[in-house]
Amino acid sequence: MTTSRLAGTELAAQEIAEVETAIARIVASRSALIPEVHQHLVQAGGKRLRPTLTIVSAKALGRCDERAVLLGAMVELTHLASLMHDDIVDNSATRRGTPSVNARWSNGVAVLAADWLIATVTCELIARGEETALAVITGAVRRMCEAELTHLEQRARTWTLSEATYLQIVRDKTGALMAAACELGGLAAEAPVEQLDALRAFGFALGMAFQIQDDLLDLTGDPETLGKPVGTDIAVGQLTLPVLHALENSTDGLLDRLRAAVTVASPDELDLPRLRALVDEAGGLEYAREAAERYVNEALSHLALLPSGPPADALRSLAERALYRDA
Questions:
Q1: Coil, helix or strand for 94?
Q2: Which of 142, 259, 285, 324 has its CA 20 to 30 Å from the CA of residue 27?
Q3: Global model pTM greater than 0.85
Q4: Which contacts of 133-139 are long-range, i.e. CB under 8 A and separated by 24 or more positions?
């Protein structure tokens, strides 16, 4: 298994290994496809960011035990299910440089495997008496689905997407599960309401910063490092923050050139260097970088309610890394 290294990895290394063991146990199924699909996803690699957030959040509040490991496993399984659903919705052929589940098997296998994971998370949490944790996870899933539906509706009306709507989509689609991951760590540590609120707010802001950095990488990243082609979001009609800002703040001549650059019949027709130059000319790249920095600063502000120490420092590093990551 190959995973991208994160700040906090060393601090949570033992518990993340236990999360992996728990997941392997949970995905054992009468259907041989379930563990096979999971192994395929594991071999594709991943950051394990969400369970890391759960573990480090619990450690930051002074209590990290088998409950934190369980909840970390639950949030990671939920994330894996969401990736399979996303790849179907986006008709993605690759995931981190390897064939996506829908491409490797079929849309049907991907849908059923993802649904099985969500159902298994629900059953596991009910069996453990973790009703509050279940409410946190299912609440995040509901927000993610609503955001994806809004996003799909907006694709048919590309030029009507406002920045406010874009930010709400990102908050729910990306931020909700990161917020849940942090909150679950607080639940595992039996934190008071004020600290649970702080962890949740930290996760939402961190998710916003991560997605905006993804938007920038979709224009400026290296395909080999990313493990996927760049420009794919824009090529399929998804307006990212740099492009959205450029479209909303361009003179008539530049606006016409931008619209021509993003309106392509297929991803292969996208002239990414030209689009990147036009977006940069309109100030879109700088605007998105500043927005990501604002959300990182917002995330850091919520850490003031946590005890100081290495776990809080690791959460801080995770947030700051969002500005500089290249994958």
A1: strand
A2: 142
A3: yes
A4: 133/71, 133/74, 133/184, 133/187, 136/180, 136/183, 136/184, 136/187, 137/74, 137/75, 137/78, 137/180, 137/184, 139/176, 139/180
Question: What type of residue is 206?
Answer: L
The per-residue pLDDT for range 21-45, each reduced to its tens digit, is: 999 999 987 788 999 999 898 877 7
Q: Which of 153, 43, 27 is nearest to 89 (CA)?
A: 153
| DSSP summary character for residue 237 | T
Name the token pair of 36. Answer: 């096979």
Distances (CA, A) of 67 to 59, 64, 185, 202, 246: 12, 7, 9, 21, 46
- Asked if 207 and 214 count as a contact pair (C-beta separation under 8 A), the reply is no
For 273-301, the pLDDT digits (tens) are 888 998 999 999 999 999 999 999 999 99
227: left (phi over 0), alpha (psi -120 to 50) or beta: left
Measured CA to CA, the distance from residue 70 to residue 67 in angstroms comes to 5
Which CATH fold would you assign to the domain 9-321?
Answer: Farnesyl Diphosphate Synthase (1.10.600)
Domain ranges of the chain: 9-321
Structure tokens given for 257: 């050139």
